[in-house]
Amino acid sequence: MIANVSIYEILTVSTLLFFIGLYGFLTRKNLITLLMSIELLLNASVINFVVINKYMFPDFLQGVYFSIFIIAVAASETALAISIIINLYRLKVSVNVDKTETMKY
Amino acid sequence: MERIFFYLFASIIIVFALASVMSHKILRAVIYLLFSLLGIAALYFMMDYTFLGAIQMAVYAGGIIILFIFSVLLVHHVEGELEQPTMMRRLLMGSASLLGFGVVISIILNHNFVTVNASAKSTEVSEIGKGLLSYESGGFILPFEVISILLLAAMIGAIIISKGRKNV
Predict the structure, then answer these.
(1) Mind listing the pLDDT tens digit for each residue in A35-63?
(2) CA A13 to CA A3: how far, in whole Å?
(3) Do B128 and A61 touch (CB under 8 A)?
(4) Are the beta carbons of B18 and A19 closer than 8 angstroms?
(5) pLDDT tens, B67-78?
(6) Which residue has the higher pLDDT, A53 or A100?
(7) With contacts defined as CB-CB under 8 Å, which chain B residues touch A9?
(8) Which residues of chain B have pLDDT under 70?
(9) CB neighbours of B23 closer than 8 A, spacing ≥ 6?
(10) pLDDT for res B144
(11) Are A48 and A62 in contact (CB under 8 A)?
């Protein structure tokens, strides 16, 4: 744990980060910036896992394992989403959410 | 001393995250996101999880941000302006986010977290590796294998999707 810093302060930071990401997710229209907001949300949850592991159960490592899994899932999700976005740009010449409203079938 | 550094890193995280979701230029938004993620890595280093901080820097700063920059350069002009949301939408979504923040933070501050005084020993990387590969109860071998399959599937899927149709 960080000396002289309580768990509430770090949880406040992560909550603030989560809702900043939510604000970005709700206001942006560009697909790449939407993806960046999702990264902020995932990072806030990872901070929560790590902090609660460190402050409440310092003898276990479960929070660290979950953080590693979340980071792996975030990386694969970003790679897939960016390949989809680039393919979409080839088809529609735009990456705004309001231009991509038709489905294949 | 630690308190000063914690507040420094926390303000870096929050300020750059705000700049990232509000920036007018998309490449700058990506770089602000990079600084925010590096601040989070610094928090992990301060909490003595050095391995996790190293992963955060390698995967996010090294991998994901580079992917974002590549895709921005492929899809946008570098100096291209982002379409700004209307004032109405900004106010509505901002107040919704603030409301959610108020609810969650009041729940957190009213909940009594039972913290223990942490032992001084720091986590070894070998401990994390042994836990990830252990078969006993509390071991994480099955999720570890599932994650490896997921990474393989994501890699193949990304190649197939971005290759497009054959005759295009």
Answers:
(1) 999 999 999 999 999 999 988 888 888 88
(2) 17
(3) yes
(4) no
(5) 999 888 888 776
(6) A53
(7) 6, 10
(8) 78-80, 118-121, 164-168
(9) B29, B32, B82
(10) 92
(11) no
Q: Which residue of B has its CA nearest to A51?
A: B47
Structure tokens belonging to residue B32: 């602000």
Collapsing DSSP states into helix, strand and coil, what is residue A30? strand
Nearest to B26 by CA among A98, A33, A95: A33
Quick check: B162 and A86 in contact, CB under 8 A? yes
Residue from B70, B38, B21, B90 nearest A38 by CA: B21
Between A70 and A99, the more confident residue is: A70
Best of B69, B77, B117, B162 to substitute, by most chain A Cβ atoms within 10 angstroms, is B162
ipTM score of complex: 0.91
In chain A, what are the domains? 29-105 (1.10.287.3510)
> What one-character DSSP code corresponds to residue B81?
B
Three-point CA angle B76, B81, B86, nearest 5°: 125
User: Residue A96, SS3?
Assistant: strand
- What are the structural domains, with CATH classification, of chain B? 1-80 (1.20.120.1200), 124-168 (no CATH)
What letter does residue B92 receive in the DSSP assignment? H
